């Protein structure tokens, strides 16, 4: 994982060539941070949740690791769930907050950082957010 770096603005951050490297970079509170590499259990849970949601819903699509533009943040939640009519034909980030989001806490992730990201999305249109802590077996 790369060390955090200060970036002046969201626009400057979005022009950086490396932000889509794996794992993706996020821009939260004026700071660029690379997401941690997911563990085996994290990856399996993420895949299973996406598959379950997509198999049960006709109006929404669950997508892994989709960049969202929610000024002045650019989060990349583990899972976003978005109404189909919000997903246009253009490839690129989701403009605005996802309808739902799911974050799966990695062992080395700061829970307060995840909460800030979730609260920002909730205050900008996200209707439902879940924070899953695999180690503590809590949602």
Question: Can you summarize this structure?
Answer:
This protein is of the alpha/beta class. It is 24% helix and 26% strand.
Task: Present the secondary structure layout.
Layout: E1 5-6, H1 10-14, E2 25-28, E3 31-34, H2 40-56, E4 60-64, E5 68-69, E6 79-83, E7 94-95, E8 100-105, H3 111-122, E9 128-133
Parallel strand pairs: 5-7, 8-9
Antiparallel strand pairs: 1-3, 2-3, 4-6, 6-8
Describe, in plain words, how this protein is organized in 3D.
Helix content is 24%, strand content 26%. It has helices at residues 10-14, 40-56, 111-122, and strands at 5-6, 25-28, 31-34, 60-64, 68-69, 79-83, 94-95, 100-105, 128-133. Strands 4-6-8-9 form a 4-stranded mixed sheet, with helices on both faces. The protein has a 3-stranded antiparallel sheet with strand order 1-3-2, with helices on one face. It has a two-stranded parallel ribbon with strand order 5-7. The longest helix is centred in the middle third of the chain and has 17 residues, at 40-56. Residues 12-139 form the Putative restriction endonuclease domain. This is Putative restriction endonuclease domain-containing protein. InterPro entries: Nuclease_put_TT1808, Restrct_endonuc-II-like, Uma2.
């Amino acid at each position: 994982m790369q060390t955090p770096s200060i970036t002046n603005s969201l626009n400057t951050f979005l022009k950086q060539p490396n932000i889509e490297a794996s794992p993706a970079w996020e821009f939260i509170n004026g700071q660029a941070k690379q997401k941690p590499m997911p563990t085996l259990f994290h990856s399996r849970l993420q895949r299973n949740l996406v598959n379950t949601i997509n198999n049960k819903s006709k109006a929404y699509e669950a997508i892994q690791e989709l960049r969202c533009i929610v000024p002045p943040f650019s989060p990349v939640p583990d899972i976003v769930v978005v109404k189909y009519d919000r997903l246009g034909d253009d490839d690129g980030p989701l403009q605005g907050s996802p309808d739902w989001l799911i974050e799966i806490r990695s062992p080395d992730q700061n829970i307060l950082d995840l909460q800030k990201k979730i609260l920002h999305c909730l205050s900008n249109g996200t209707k439902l957010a879940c924070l899953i802590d695999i180690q503590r077996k809590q949602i």
